[in-house]
Amino acid sequence: LWTIIHYLVRGQLGWFGMTIACTVPGYAAQLLSILWFRADGRPPGCCLLTLHFLQFGLWKRYWDVLRMAAKMGGSARAGEVVMQYGDVCVLQLLEALLQALPHLLLQSYVIVAESPCLHPGVSAGLSLLSLAWALVSYSRFSCLLKPGHLCPPAVAILCLLLWRTGMLGTRVLALVLFARLYSFWVFAVAGVHWLLMSFWLVAQQTDIVAQPCRWRLFNCLVGAVYIFCYVNVRPGPSKHRVAVFYAVSTQNLQYSTWM
């Protein structure tokens, strides 16, 4: 909101409109949250709908998880808290990829294309932190689902957050600088990476989505996410898949530098 007002006051209507447009895809996560509330037997009332309209629906879910955990403590129903926490993590990751990531790209490009300014810089930094935390929360939930795995300690969470932040920051900066120098050629480089990652996901035969049409759509969407970061979508050790991802990313970066 601070950045939107900043562009409006300065008369930069182009950046103003594009910044507002970046907030619209985030409502997909809010809509999905409402549908999940309804599926859980909790028909959303006027207050809950208003919170989701103001994009506070995930904060409401976080509050519910904290309250449920405080009531249950170490009871046998702790697994229910984990599943509720998993819903929040998935929704938060979806919101970050659909809203925080485009906003981060846009504000980073504004900083590079024009003179550096406080408002876009702070907004881009917060979007980067939000995206990194969403990925860390998803990884933490994946660890909690594995049998015999305990909750990662705070130091491990902090290291994972720093790694995600550094990886995403450098990747976004490289793409923004390339777009500043070569304009629309960045779409060609990103498109090649997206196709390679999508075909790679198809070759892995991921079984998260069963229906063929939705399975193809899922692979295409995750392939687009792989332009920026790696998200593990298969059970089991992932070190070989991570190695392949970084090998392809490095090759694309070298190709971009050569261009």
From TrEMBL:
This is XK-related protein. It comes from Baryphthengus martii. GO terms for cellular component: plasma membrane. Keywords: Cell membrane, Membrane, Transmembrane, Transmembrane helix. It is found in: Cell membrane; Membrane. Belongs to the XK family. The lineage of its organism: Eukaryota, Metazoa, Chordata, Craniata, Vertebrata. Signal peptide: none annotated. The chain crosses the membrane at residues 15-37, 150-178, 184-203, 215-233. It is a multi-pass membrane protein. The keyword Transcription regulation does not apply. Coiled coil: none annotated. The keyword tRNA-binding does not apply.
